[in-house]
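Entry: Rho GDP-dissociation inhibitor
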Amino acid sequence: MVGSYGPKKEVYEYKSPEEEFPSGMLQRGEFKVKSVFTDDDKNEILSWEWKLEIKKDWKD
């Protein structure tokens, strides 16, 4: 078992509340993120890196 939930046939979905990003030119840019999935014993199951781009206009 990984995490606090045992296996089951039904899909478990969680949607977090919507958040508002800080506005302004200083908050725009590209941010590198590393996500890690661990179990209760802190064993790393999966990790991946991705980027988040905050732009004023998405036409580019």
